[in-house]
Amino acid sequence: MLKIGDKAPQFSGVDSEGKILKLSDFRGSKLVLYFYPKDNTPGCTAQACDLRDNYERLLSLGYKVVGVSKDNMKSHKGFIEKFNLPFPLISDEEAIILKAYEAWGRKKFMGKEYDGIIRKTFVIDETGVISDIIEKVETKAHSKQLIGK
Q: SS3 for 30?
């Protein structure tokens, strides 16, 4: 079980532009690594747009932002363009990063159980250590959860 103070798991993933992003690319910056279920769904759109609307403030505080879901690169590209998202989204179709960050597991919806993406956010410090984990994400006020503390 990942906890605050742990070294963040290394990851490597492809964003919507085909660029490979790795945890080591963000060394020296604080990273908001957020996991969300699906592009273009109400909660995920609200979360992404809240991060977009507060992106300049996050940058000014030294944060970089990266989203991760199982959606493919084409879906991410359309989502980014449709909502003018200024940060990259990684396609993790095999759920490798999701599993490493414990953002994949059993979920319940309308009485049914299934495996799926668990919405959560990790804040990783400049040295690659987890400094915060947000398990109960407020999709419409996620930035406040990150910088309102």
A: strand
Sign of CA dihedral 145, 20, 71, 39: positive
Residues noted as catalytic: 44
CB-based contact 90:56 (threshold 8 Å): no
Distance in angstroms (rounded) separating the CA atoms of residues 144 and 74: 30
Q: Which residue has the tokens 């414990």?
A: 102
Q: Where are the beta strands (DSSP E) in the chain?
A: 12-15, 20-22, 30-35, 63-69, 89-91, 104-109, 112-117, 120-124, 130-134
> In whole angstroms, what is the distance from residue 2 CA to residue 23 CA?
16
Tens digits of residue pLDDT in 76-105: 999 999 999 999 999 999 999 999 999 999
Distance of CA 85 to the CA centre of its chain: 13
H-run or E-run covering 69: strand 63-69
The residue ranges of every structural domain in the chain are: 27-147
Query: Domain 27-147: which topology?
Result: Glutaredoxin (3.40.30)
Other C-beta atoms closer than 10 Å to the C-beta of 64 total 19
